[in-house]
Amino acid sequence: MNRAELIDQLHREEFDLCIIGAGASGAGCALDAALRGLKVVLVDSSDFSAGTSSRSTKLIHGGVRYLEQAFKNFDFAQLKQVRHGLEERHAVLANAPHLSRPLALVTPVFSWIEGLYFTIGLKIYAWFASAKDTLPKSEWLNKKTVLQRIPGLNPQLHSAVLYYDGQLDDARYALALALSAREEGVVTLNHLAVTGFEKSTNGHLQTALVTDQLTGDQHHIRAKVFLNCTGPYADHIRLAANPQIPARIRPSKGVHAVLPLDILGGKEALLIPKTPDGRVVFAIPFFDKLLLGTTDEDYNGGDAEPVLEGREVDYLLETLAPYVRQKVTPDQVTAGFGGLRPLITAVGRSTKGLVRDHEVEHDPASNLYSLLGGKWTTYRLMAKDAVDEICAALGNSNTCATESYVLVGGQGFHPDDWKNIQQETGLAEDICRHLLLNYGTKWPDLVAIIRENAETAARLAPNYPFIGAEVVYTARHEMCCTLRDFFARRIRLEIMDWQATQAAAEMAGNWLGQELGWDGKATQAHIAAYRELVAGFAKAASRL
Ligand SMILES: Cc1cc2nc3c(=O)[nH]c(=O)nc-3n(C[C@H](O)[C@H](O)[C@H](O)COP(=O)(O)OP(=O)(O)OC[C@H]3O[C@@H](n4cnc5c(N)ncnc54)[C@H](O)[C@@H]3O)c2cc1C
User: Fold this and answer.
1) Residue 431 belongs to what H/E stretch?
2) Domains, the chain, ordered by start
3) 45 lines ligand 1 (CB under 6 A)
4) pTM for this structure?
């Protein structure tokens, strides 16, 4: 991943396809297109997955709520969406086994009628899953069993239903897509923003003007086709390509508050099926934290990053309160994050009522393709639809090959291999398990870094398994260019614990500075700026 060399390629080459935005959609399209033999460049104005794709609830699902809505409203389009999600679940799980896993979700019920209602619903949900799906079947648990499994639940419940969906480490999954695309020959570049276009005489896009966000340098990308995968920001690119077309995206903000895992006290997630204002809220174990979310409201903050706010913490904790034994207070929130759903506009409906489906839009005047809407779970189908259309336009008849393509780090993965890391390094079990799950079969490269310099084996934060070698590895092999790239997306400490992130910034900053050739002053400036950013998140969430 030599950035200068990759940037140099932009000047030398003309591409078949330039993909703008490297979230789940863009990185998914890049891999799909490369496997069909297209010459592809993938750019992101921030980092791989820095947008919505690192800020999701991290579920691989069809959406039980959408199933209920589909039946209640006789809405077949919505039913189709549920089916697509469930059909894709097995592929998302199988293609990156180190970054995804089955997740048991529990819904407490307060009467046997409610229990029966959910049990029937979950049977129908399971019925829509692919025949290749190997997730365990749903169960109706009696009160004693459910409280044994999740001791933190409110004992007032009658019983509970349990079912399985998938869970993924969203940021690392998108990164694995981008890294796999790179291995298949795609020029992948983060921190490179598309700021405008040049057109040929027939009005078609010919060149994208890009600015390196790290240096301010300007570059050009020449391509036959441009594909807009900028999620909630898709209208910026659509309107830059053709100011005559109407805006299509209605961003909806969703936040998560992060809490200690022992509030529930089990491995299962909690699904709160209906909040007083008609939403679904999840409390989901993610590493050793509990993600509580999400909200769903129109976002009017423009390009500003959506962050967890104090009023949203209050809302989420009020929603959780009837379901748990202990009183959870705002000072227990250790971190949080916000994201924007890239919903496609449907005039006059609240964002809760919009279906999360996708659309491949082609603007004939500019020849821009845009992949709009969708959800994480269906990223592969979305990519297939977009690349099918683009291949047809380019006269390429190769078919999609991503269904069984195992991503970087997933080939030959075995969950017990952490023991090999321990044998080679003598590191603590939690560190070895983390290295295996974060980097999959790439772990020997981290061991080599530790052998090169034993100091890199030190923990970055006392109660977490993250170590210095990861900073070095991600800078060398995963295009980690900033402290935020590292803490928010290469490891996930920023979304787990703001205090620990701030404390670890000094050590990580020094390792990163060494790798990227920053001098002492620049390193200190990077550390101070990042700490201030994280302090700002904590302030917004606490309403100080
Ligand atoms: C709170 C929340 C929870 C969710 N939970 C789930 C879930 O549990 N399961 C599920 O399946 N789905 C979930 N989703 C939906 C899912 O996360 C999104 O649909 C998906 O991540 C969108 O991916 P994307 O690639 O289209 O957009 P993004 O991930 O936002 O990617 C767009 C990228 O474009 C880049 N970009 C923007 N402008 C430019 C430019 N000018 N030049 C270059 N690059 C640019 C951005 O930096 C960004 O990285 C959730 C969404 C939200 C908001």
Assistant:
1) helix 429-439
2) 3-53+171-248+356-394 (3.50.50.60), 82-168+250-353 (3.30.9.10), 415-542 (1.10.8.870)
3) yes
4) 0.96
